[in-house]
């Protein structure tokens, strides 16, 4: 039991997720108010909600980062994480899934199933999390609730069943799991109750036997809970709930569902921890075992410093105990153990399995770090969340001289907090590039950098992240021989290059026979090859998807040195690549463009002019059209500006890396010719 009297069995961890505008933040306000955590509800419009505390969130009227909160009902602590809905800020939303056992996907009753709805349900399923569909704004004009229930069942499976139903025109919500009588706006409580009961009992043999022998009355509340939880864990049931976050209808019923039926940390599917060989590791919600916790959020607080927010999966973290970060040799002392609730930091004495807690001022801590108290767990890692690769980019330089170091520190802190922000330093171009998921994502990062850290920057488009590869196999050879006044240098390498499948990366193979090249020089050859791969052979872009096999060579007993084989390996590799039909690859991104339906012709025509392939269109409620396409990233520079101009500011888009493919021959020729003068200078 922790300092607040909660055992693991009394904890529920739930992420509020879904499409932008579905009402997640307003629902969090309603849940906190109904649970007595706040005295009055705020509103997104007034900028005074519990979770939207950042200046940019208040100004823009939507969530940008995740926010932790909690409601206490009797002995049960319901821990909630509000997540952003816009695809631009998917990083914090996905990171939150690594800390919870249940995802409540909020659906706007007026808009129906939107792309963010599908995306978050899919992520929950991939992670093995229990999923609840929460239909919000049930009292909104134009809401067609019976039709929406059928749409949800069609989209996500017949295991989606209402566990409560709206009544009195959406002003009340009646529970259908524990009750079977009452007048509802559609369907009937008795029918909904029976469908849930049939779904739940069929998966648990003990409950099924009691039900068939004696009827529903023979099933105890604990048996019902166990069977319900098993259904959630196995994906056999996806409850549908109804709420109006604005009026509070259904909010108390949602809290009751969380308390009585949702899985606690000891019941949920085990977290996917892996060892150094990527084999599954058993981690149990047992407070007496070794500590294993995972950091799912980093906050750089101006007053407290760097905060690492983590989920305890096993063991008990106590104040003044010592923990290791990943495979670090030196432990750190837990000087302050904190619970985060909005902007409040509450000191606690201990955190048990299922708790969400934080430690401050531990410099080695980072996103996705594993905290543990024994070297037995040094190499354990939580299976990584698949985040979209950031493709939008801006090259940055400080507006004022002398702020280079300040800029580097600010960028590092921003990237620590958001797994979908990445900082690249291109030494050959003396260029620093900040990459994110969209122009909006980058704009928010720059605004935060100015407001928090006082750094203003000048920006310009970065070079596109082209890559190089080869289309054929070839051999290359080089003899490095250098004789100075003293000891000389000698190394000779014959190697072969072969293309790998796209995404194959790099393979280095030693096929030298008879000791022609001593084994201690093979790492030097690989180092030379990697140097050449980093700097490119055709147009100055990194090479990928290549296997390099060292076949033969020569050495000298006195003059052979590491530096000689680095040079020989690099030049032999470049010799081989030049014969292997080198090609330039360009990033192709999946693009989703949401627009008013009347602009479809202009937008699809514009995309076609950018070498895009239209994959399909989906008509959304409210006359909005979602266009799915693939396009070269190089063609999408300033697309946000173009989209605003065509749609009068009503269009939006997101993109995600799909794959790399060869550039058209004229583009390759241009890239190669523009790089050649630089290569000759080198």
Topology:
Blueprint: E1 11-18, H1 24-34, H2 55-60, E2 67-73, E3 76-82, H3 90-97, E4 102-108, H4 115-126, E5 130-136, H5 145-156, E6 160-162, E7 164-167, E8 172-175, H6 189-201, H7 205-214, H8 221-233, E9 238-242, H9 251-260, E10 273-274, E11 292-301, E12 305-314, E13 317-318, E14 322-325, E15 332-333, E16 337-341, E17 344-347, E18 350-351, E19 356-360, E20 370-372, E21 381-382, E22 392-398, H10 404-417, E23 422-426, E24 431-436, H11 439-453, E25 457-460, E26 467-470, E27 474-482, E28 489-499, E29 506-510, H12 522-535, E30 546-554, H13 562-579, E31 582-596, H14 600-608, E32 613-619, E33 624-632, H15 639-647, E34 652-662, H16 665-681
Parallel strand pairs: 1-3, 1-4, 4-5, 5-9, 6-9, 29-30
Antiparallel strand pairs: 2-3, 7-8, 10-21, 11-12, 11-20, 12-19, 13-18, 14-15, 14-20, 16-17, 16-19, 22-24, 22-25, 23-24, 26-31, 27-28, 28-30, 31-33, 31-34, 32-33
Distinctive features:
28% helix, eight-stranded antiparallel β-sheet, globular, alpha+beta, 34 strands, 682 residues
Care to describe what's here?
It is a single chain. The strands form eight sheets. The protein has an eight-stranded antiparallel β-sheet. Strands 2-3-1-4-5-9-6 form a seven-stranded mixed β-sheet, sandwiched between helices. Helix 1 (24-34) packs across helix 9 (251-260). Strand 16 (337-341) and strand 17 form a beta hairpin. Helix content is 28%, strand content 30%. It has 16 helices and 34 strands. The radius of gyration is 29 Å and the shape is globular. It is α+β, with helices and mostly antiparallel strands and 682 residues long.
């Amino acid at each position: 039991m922790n300092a607040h009297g909660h055992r693991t069995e009394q904890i529920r961890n739930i992420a509020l997720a879904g499409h932008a505008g579905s009402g997640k933040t307003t629902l969090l306000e309603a849940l906190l108010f109904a649970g007595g955590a706040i005295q009055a509800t705020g509103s997104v419009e007034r900028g005074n909600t519990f979770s939207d505390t950042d200046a940019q969130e208040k100004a823009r009227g939507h969530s940008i980062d995740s926010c932790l909160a909690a409601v206490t009902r009797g002995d049960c602590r319901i821990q909630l994480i509000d997540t952003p809905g816009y695809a631009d800020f998917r990083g914090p939303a996905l990171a939150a899934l690594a800390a919870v056992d249940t995802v409540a996907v909020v659906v706007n009753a007026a808009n129906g199933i939107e792309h963010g709805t599908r995306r978050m349900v899919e992520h929950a399923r991939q992670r093995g999390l229990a999923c609840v569909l929460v239909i919000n704004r049930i009292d909104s004009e134009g809401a067609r609730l019976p039709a929406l229930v059928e749409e949800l069942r069609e989209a996500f499976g017949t295991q989606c069943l209402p566990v409560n139903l709206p009544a009195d025109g959406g002003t009340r919500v009646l529970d259908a799991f524990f009750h079977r009588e009452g007048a509802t706006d559609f369907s009937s409580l008795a029918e909904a109750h029976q469908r849930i009961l049939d779904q739940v009992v069929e998966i648990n043999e003990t409950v099924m036997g009691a039900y068939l022998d004696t009827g529903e009355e023979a099933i105890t509340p604990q048996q019902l809970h166990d069977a319900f939880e098993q259904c959630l864990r196995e994906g056999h049931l996806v409850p549908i709930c109804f709420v109006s976050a604005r009026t509070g209808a259904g909010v108390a019923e949602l809290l009751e569902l969380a308390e009585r039926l949702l899985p606690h940390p000891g019941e949920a599917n085990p977290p996917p921890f892996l060892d150094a060989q990527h084999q599954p590791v058993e981690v149990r919600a047992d407070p007496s075992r070794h500590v294993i916790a995972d950091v799912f959020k980093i906050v750089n607080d101006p007053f407290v410093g760097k905060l690492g927010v983590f989920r305890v999966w096993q063991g008990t973290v106590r104040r003044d105990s010592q923990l290791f970060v990943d495979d670090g040799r030196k432990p750190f002392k837990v000087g302050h153990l904190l619970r985060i609730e909005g902007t409040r930091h509450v000191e606690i004495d201990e955190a048990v399995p299922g708790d969400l807690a934080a430690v401050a001022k531990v410099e080695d801590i980072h996103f996705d770090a594993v905290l543990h108290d024994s070297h037995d767990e040094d190499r354990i890692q939580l299976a990584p969340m698949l985040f979209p690769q950031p493709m939008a980019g801006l090259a940055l330089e400080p507006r004022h001289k002398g702020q280079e170091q300040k800029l580097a520190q600010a960028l590092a802190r921003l990237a620590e907090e958001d797994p979908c922000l990445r900082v690249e330093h291109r030494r050959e171009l003396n260029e620093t590039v900040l990459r994110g998921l969209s122009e909006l994502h980058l704009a928010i990062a720059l605004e935060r950098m100015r407001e928090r850290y006082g750094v203003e920057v000048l920006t310009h488009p970065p070079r596109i992240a082209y890559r190089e590869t080869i289309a054929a196999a070839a051999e290359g050879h080089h003899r490095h021989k250098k004789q100075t006044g003293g000891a000389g240098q000698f190394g000779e390498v014959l190697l072969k290059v072969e293309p790998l499948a796209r995404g194959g990366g790099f393979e280095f193979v030693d096929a030298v026979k008879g000791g022609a090249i001593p084994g201690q020089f093979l790492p030097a050859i690989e180092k030379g090859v990697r140097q050449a791969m980093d700097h490119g052979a055709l147009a100055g872009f990194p090479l990928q998807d290549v296997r390099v096999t060292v076949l033969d060579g020569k050495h000298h007993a006195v003059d052979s040195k590491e530096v000689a084989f680095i040079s020989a390996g690099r030049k032999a590799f470049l010799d081989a690549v030049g014969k292997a039909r080198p090609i330039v690859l360009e990033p192709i991104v999946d693009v989703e463009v949401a627009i008013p339906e009347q602009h479809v012709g202009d937008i699809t025509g514009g995309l076609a002019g950018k070498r895009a392939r239209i994959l399909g269109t989906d008509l959304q409620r409210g006359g909005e059209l979602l266009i799915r396409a693939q396009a070269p990233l190089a063609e999408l520079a300033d697309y946000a500006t173009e989209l605003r101009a065509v749609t009068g500011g009503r269009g939006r888009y997101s993109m995600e890396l799909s794959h790399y493919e060869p550039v058209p021959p004229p583009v390759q020729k241009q890239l190669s010719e523009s790089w050649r003068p630089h290569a000759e200078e080198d």
